[in-house]
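Now for a specimen:

…
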Amino acid sequence: MLTLRYRPLWLLASIVLVLVVIWGSLQTRYGLNVPHGFDKVEHVSTYMFLAVWFTGLIQRPRYWIAMLCLLGLGATMEFAQWAMHAGRTADPYDMAANCCGVLAGLTLARLGTGGWAQRVEAWMP
């Protein structure tokens, strides 16, 4: 992890983000009727956001670890949806969208968003 003054805050926020993604991926109570195919936009944008988030907290040589963890999270959520039999369905296209989101986030990190947390902390008192 990068040297950060507010490290515990970043770690807590990271845990909350991942828990929200897990809850959103597995909950069945608040199903939204989205236009056909729009859920793929949700997958891409969620995993892109997570990739940008985590590449903002870690050193560049370790980006690959974050990317593997995010891909593992996406695969685990798809498997859990399949195993639950509770109204959620696993979709290989969802996993493909997750992969696209992770790659897009990694690309953004390489183009300049990586290490964003240090820049944010530089603005803070």
Notes: The mean pLDDT is 93.
